[in-house]
Design a protein that fits this description.
6-stranded antiparallel beta sheet; Immunoglobulin-like; about 260 residues; 5-stranded mixed beta sheet; single chain; 2 helices; mainly beta
């Protein structure tokens, strides 16, 4: 049985050697996120074929994998894009309830489907790009760019009471998406794989370097509406059962970095 298994894998390996792989993304979107403001009739994002072959482009919106029913639609849902050509994807609002006191997040999916190759033994792959789409109600309080400074913070015990977690609350109506986050604990620097804090929600991240909750210093950056990284901010996070508001300070730029 073992020899038969090895022969089967050897055959698959030899077959793959005889194939040419074609999986390079050719269709590029003109942004890493889309913000659809309620006051606007539509939102849009350009796409361009940077490759040398034409593609059929399929576009759709979902509210998470497997949840394709949303009050937003994208047009054209199917189009042809020749090499070097550009097109605009437009997002429209359709009937359906959405919260008026906070942003809603969806995902815009763009799949490039290559034409059938005329060459033999070519394995072609349809590449999908997926970016966040935020629907922003008109009457939200405050500004999106100020949301990161209004986050609340605490270090508390984990669910088993044997370690520590970093708790981050978001009392605003805007999503806050982190790019980088580093936690200093007694001189040790730990990188946290933080993602996004939903509006009026809370997230927790484990701090494996701590056996019990203790105050820490956190440096972090976020992403703005234009897909750019914000300046690095710093907070001193206290111990507590629930996140609280803390003072946010800008991390000084190193002298060598300022010269570049």
């Amino acid at each position: 049985m073992r020899s038969t298994h090895r022969l089967r894998w050897a055959f698959v390996f030899l077959l793959m050697l005889g194939l040419q792989w074609s999986a390079t993304a050719g269709v590029v979107l003109g942004g890493t996120r889309v913000v659809f403001a309620e006051k606007d009739r539509e939102a849009s994002i350009p796409m361009r074929n940077t490759g040398t072959s034409p593609y059929v482009v399929q576009a759709w919106i979902d509210a998470g994998e497997g949840h394709t029913k949303t009050p937003l639609l994208v047009t054209p849902p199917l189009s042809r894009l020749d090499p070097g050509a550009e097109n605009i994807l437009r997002i429209l609002r359709v009937p359906g309830d959405l919260p008026a006191d906070r942003e809603s997040v969806f995902w815009l999916n763009v799949k490039e489907i290559p034409e059938k190759s005329r060459e033999e033994n070519v394995l072609q792959i349809a590449v999908r790009t997926r970016i966040k789409l935020f629907y922003r109600p008109a009457k939200l309080v405050g500004k999106a760019e100020d949301a990161r400074s209004q986050l609340t913070w605490a270090v508390g015990p984990d669910a088993q009471g044997q370690g520590a977690v970093l708790k981050i609350g978001n009392p605003t109506g805007y999503h806050v998406t982190f790019i980088a986050m580093n936690v200093d604990t007694n001189g040790d620097r730990q990188r946290v794989a933080a993602d996004m804090v939903p509006p009026m929600g809370q997230v927790s991240y484990p701090l494996p370097a701590l056996k019990t909750p203790q105050a820490v210093r956190v440096d972090f950056t976020t992403i703005n509406d234009y897909g750019a990284e914000t300046p690095e901010d710093r907070v001193e996070v206290p111990v507590g059962a629930e996140p609280v508001a803390v003072k946010v300070e800008r991390v000084p730029v190193a002298a060598d970095a300022a010269k570049r």
